[in-house]
């Protein structure tokens, strides 16, 4: 991969013009939307984009509209210089869009994007305004970049489902690729929010993955009663003293409707606070 320095652009209109020229040359554009504080999970999406598209664009934007008052918008890590150094060492990223909130939401901005169905439960229940904020920013990013493909992580399973539904329902001309979850050695899914964990909480955090492994094991041993599986998962997670469960769900992988019985394909999802840090994780049962 060419060790180029990405061109960092803050004004979305400037990026659109640069990419329009690239499209005229017949090149394909891959977009990796992020909120920065990049880790190997993000970089795996970048590599996937590089392997499938001619030009890769990474957006780094802590999107205010997807945070509710009292959530971690202010304290979310912002480390643009470190992020750029990482992208430079991976190589092959042509553009980084790093806008200010006012570049994305100028004075007078007043648009809303609401995707129904898959947004209702789980994250949507605990963070009722979250997916409207995600949908509006992702739709803007798709339009700004004119991306042929967008690369998302399975880590945010419901978010990927919402974006896929938005693409289908609104006929957006972009192909969504959902990439596997990248984990730390002890199983904890990589996340920019892992930085919030104290050393003691960090030791407890792999309990999420252990609970997902337990579910997977029970399902492979032909346990079909979803309530029973969730009960066992809950009991395991509660052995971590700093844990507080928001939800444990065994759901249909497309609609995210809760399943009573696990027979075929399913997704097991959970959201657990460790101390004050809210972590999410999931596993797809084939
Ligand atoms: P974020 O910066 O947290 O908004 O994440 C940006 C993108 O990276 C989203 O599509 C996430 O699903 C994806 N992502 C975050 N963590 C991981 C991970 N551990 N493995 C794979 N993809 C991830």
């Amino acid at each position: 991969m060419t060790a180029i320095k990405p061109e960092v652009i803050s004004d979305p209109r400037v990026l659109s013009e640069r990419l329009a020229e690239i499209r005229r040359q017949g090149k394909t554009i891959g977009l990796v939307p992020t909120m920065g504080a990049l880790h190997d999970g993000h970089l795996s999406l970048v590599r996937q984009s590089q392997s499938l598209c001619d030009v890769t664009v990474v957006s780094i934007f802590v999107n205010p509209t997807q945070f509710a008052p009292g959530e971690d918008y202010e304290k979310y890590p912002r480390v643009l210089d470190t992020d750029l150094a990482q992208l430079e060492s991976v190589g092959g990223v042509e553009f980084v869009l790093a806008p200010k909130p006012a570049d994305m939401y100028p004075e007078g901005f007043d648009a809303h994007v609401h995707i129904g169905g898959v947004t209702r439960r789980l994250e949507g229940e605990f963070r009722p305004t979250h997916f409207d904020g995600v949908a509006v920013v992702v739709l803007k990013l798709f339009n700004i970049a004119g991306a042929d493909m967008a690369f998302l992580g399975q880590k945010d399973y419901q978010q990927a489902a919402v974006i896929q539904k938005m693409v289908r329902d609104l006929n957006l001309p972009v192909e969504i690729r959902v990439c596997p979850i990248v984990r730390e050695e002890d199983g904890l899914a990589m996340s920019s929010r892992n930085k919030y964990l104290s050393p003691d909480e960090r030791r407890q955090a792999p309990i999420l993955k252990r609970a997902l492994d337990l579910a997977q094991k029970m399902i492979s041993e032909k346990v079909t009663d979803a309530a029973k599986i969730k009960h066992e998962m809950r009991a395991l997670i509660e052995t971590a003293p700093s844990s507080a469960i928001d939800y444990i769900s065994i759901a249909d992988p497309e609609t995210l409707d809760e399943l009573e019985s696990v027979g075929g394909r399913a997704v097991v999802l959970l959201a657990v606070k460790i101390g004050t840090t809210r972590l999410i994780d999931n596993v797809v049962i084939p």
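The mean pLDDT is 97. The longest helix spans residues 130-145.
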